[in-house]
Sequence to fold (248 residues):
Amino acid sequence: MKKILLGILLLAAALTLSSCVTAPIQPIPPQPVPSRPVVRGDICHVVAPGETIWRISKMYDVPMESIVRANNLKDATQLEKGQRLAVPNAAPIVPVVTLYPSAKWKYIIIHHSATDEGNSYAFDNSHRSKGWNSVGYHFVIDNGTQSKQDGQIEAGPRWIKQQDGSHCRAGNMNTKAIGICLVGNFNKSHVSSKQMDSLIYVVNRLRHYYKIPADRIMGHGQVAGATTACPGKLFPWSEFKSRVRQGS
Fold:
């Protein structure tokens, strides 16, 4: 009887040890990767045509009241283009592309400035000298010159007020096409990666909202009747079209 009991105990012990060996090992959950803190700092912002305290506030994630107080603004609705504003504790800039209900926008036309430098403020002055009432494009994508960041998106007064453009007479596009200008001369230089990222972002945001088909997104020179190489022979059409499709 003792031998039988001993055998049972030995068998039970063997089964227990065996179950420990074959039991599945619970994976250790991955440790969360600490996110990088947003680096903030005081900056000086040059007001572009049509910009408001609200838009600047959204761009830098800073309360409007903080900007008004930092600049002792008596009337925050009366900003002047070219005015320099202190923006306290500003976060890295983010694009502000406001969408307005409208049935007029049927095309998107891409331009280059054909200049090495520029921004919305510079183009506004240039276009006004021609007798126009503001910069002719709806959006300008900067290349890091004249106090603007590479890839920074500027929405002009014509977009904010939903006015016709003054960027492409051919095909009567001024009345039905959103004009986007990238700063640079792409007959002799290339679109920067940050500019291209911003262009894809703006185009996809606009085309989805306004239901603009891909074949109505074109360069200035591709419009029937236009006599220009704009946006330049080095503009990367294959990359652009591929990335726009990826955003479908």
User: Anything to note?
Assistant: Residues 66 and 88 are 7 Å apart (CA to CA).
